[in-house]
Design a protein that fits this description.
Elements lengths: L2 H5 L3 H10 L3 H4 L6 H54 L12 E2 L3 E9 L5 E11 L4 E7 L13 E5 L1 E9 L4 E2 L2 E2 L10 E9 L6 E9 L4
Antiparallel strand pairs: 1-2, 1-8, 2-3, 3-4, 4-5, 6-7, 6-9, 9-10
């Protein structure tokens, strides 16, 4: 056996001996320090805050979308009803029967369905309340032929910023119509323009329909 082999140190035994004499504070170290705990809490707080912000933003967008959808749906229903009732407008043999139309209101006689399911001749008026931004409808099944009154009016649509009627005489469109001045004639057609918007006036949509009168 050579001298080199006899003098080679036992490295494995030295490593074990070194580990055995290592300070206990190093071998027994477990858990997190206060600084590490605070950092982890800060990261968790940021994650929770970000998640809440995203949820709140999504919820707000959904609510705005629902409100806008409902407002536009009501406007479409309103303009559809106006169109249907104007299409049925009539002038009966009574000399007091009239069709009176202005830029933002109209009054006429039309057949409406009652609660009993029977169609009766009624006095219908549509008008625009600019202060409240609402479309109003008045119905009187006992016509007095006085279109200056709006008793028992109902709100047909809210958020209305503009209501405009135009009347077609067969040649051109007019801003007003009075059957007393047209020899008891009805307009050939009526154009209805309805504009609705949100409370802040940032979003709006315009609905427009042209209705031909069946008895004109």
């Amino acid at each position: 056996m050579s001298l080199d082999k006899c003098r080679r140190p036992n490295i494995k035994n030295q490593q074990i001996d070194s580990f055995a004499h290592a300070p206990k504070r190093i071998r027994l170290r477990q858990g997190f320090t206060l600084v590490e705990t605070l950092i982890a809490l800060a990261i968790l707080a940021m994650v929770v805050a970000s998640t809440f912000t995203i949820f709140k933003s999504s919820s707000s967008s959904w609510q705005k979308g629902e409100t806008r959808s409902e407002r536009y749906h009501n406007a479409r229903v309103a303009i559809g009803r106006i169109s249907a009732e104007i299409a049925q407008a009539v002038l009966n043999e009574n000399d007091q029967s009239r069709f009176i139309g202005q830029k933002d209101e109209v009054g006429f006689l039309s057949f409406v369905s009652t609660s009993s399911g029977i169609f009766e001749l009624a006095e219908i008026e549509y008008w625009f309340d600019k202060n409240q931004k609402v479309l109003m409808r008045n119905e009187d099944v006992d016509p007095d032929y006085d279109f200056s009154t709006q008793d028992y009016s109902d709100i047909l649509a809210e958020g209305v910023s503009e209501l405009e009627f135009s009347y077609y005489d067969g040649i051109k469109w007019e801003d007003s119509w009075d059957s007393d001045l047209t020899e008891g004639m009805l307009p050939k057609a009526v154009k209805v323009k309805l504009k609705v918007e949100d409370k802040k006036g940032k979003e709006s949509e315009v609905f427009e329909v042209v209705t031909q009168l069946k008895t004109a």
